[in-house]
């Protein structure tokens, strides 16, 4: 009788080395995943969408203090801002005022603030503004008609009085409304001359007309309060926080009266198609 020692069976890897299962620790891969996520966040912020915090009441009641909005940068890669859109722009060297955000003093808070600002989730820069576009290049913008409404006359078009139900605490006194640029008048009679928006610039106003340091407050500037299009960061299109205020930011219907009519362009396209086909047939002959 002999004692037999059980054989020890070992799993021996077979097959090419590159096909063998790899057992890596999640914690070893975590830093790599974090770096990828951070780089993707930077790319998204820089080229596509960026989050902004609303620090003041200049856009009430459309936007409240503490709201966070997403700003879409893509549309302005192929077109300029349109009337009625809410835009974020950098006011450096154009607007002097700004909302100063106190810097954190705690070292940990400083690091977290730097990271969140880098990916677009932190407090805004004190030179970032959010306003509604009222006039685009070539527009003549003035205050006001007999009903106290802003009047916009597009280049080659007819004057349109804006019905703006979204306005909060409208103010037609002192310097909050504009007459002839640079006149220094404190009240504006109906039909005042207003401002011609130069090429490459915009006339912007806050929805809280009694509490917005917008284009009206900068009439004495060289560009009469207008801001350059190339300083626009993007178009605010949705409120994402707080959750009870989540919603899409639409262009008010009053600005549709200022849009170029689609019919002439549609008819032009329809007419261009047969002409193009006729030319191609002649060339083939």
Characterise this structure:
With 285 residues, the chain is α+β, with helices and mostly antiparallel strands. The chain has a single domain (52-259), classed as Umud Fragment, subunit A (Ribbon). It contains 3 helices and 12 strands. The chain has helices spanning 26-48, 107-118, 262-284; strands at residues 49-53, 68-72, 86-90, 128-135, 140-143, 150-153, 160-161, 195-196, 201-205, 227-228, 232-241, 247-248. The strands form 2 sheets. Strands 1, 2, 3, 4, 9, 10, 11 and 12 form an 8-stranded antiparallel sheet that branches. A 4-stranded antiparallel sheet has the order 7-6-5-8, with no helix packed on it. A hairpin with a 6-residue loop joins strand 5 and strand 6 (150-153). The radius of gyration is 29 Å and the shape is elongated.
Number of strands: 12
CATH class division: Mainly Beta
Query: Uncertain segments of ≥5 residues (pLDDT<50)?
Result: 261-270
Taking Cα atoms only, what radius of gyration do you get, to the nearest Å? 29 Å
* Mean pLDDT, all residues: 75
Fraction of residues in helix:
10-25%
CATH-defined topology: Umud Fragment, subunit A
Tally of domains: 1
Share of residues in strands = 15-25%
CATH architectural type: Ribbon
Most strands sheet? 8 strands, antiparallel
Q: By helix and strand content, what is the structural category?
A: alpha+beta
Question: What is the string of helix and strand elements?
Answer: HEEEHEEEEEEEEEH
Task: Let me know the CATH homologous superfamily.
Answer: Umud Fragment, subunit A
Beginning-to-end CA distance, first to last residue: 105 Å
Number of helices: 3
Molecular shape: elongated
